[in-house]
Amino acid sequence: MWVDIEDQADALGDLDIETFPTLLIAQGATPRFLGPVLPHAAHVERLLDALAHDERSGSAGPEARELMERLGPGQLEPI
User: What's the pLDDT score for residue 68?
Assistant: First the structure.
């Protein structure tokens, strides 16, 4: 899902996005990763592959869970 940090700034709360792109990756209701990534598809593919194959990797902290709650289904747009 795509979040426009200007149009949906209220949903971000205190989270300060400084680097683009910044990704929040979740598996169901469990946040697995929140942070900036290099803007190259290969880097994102490796990150997704690592998260898919290792359940222990990519435990995003409470900040990611809070963001997911604020961004509920009505806040997100498909990309």
Answer: 86
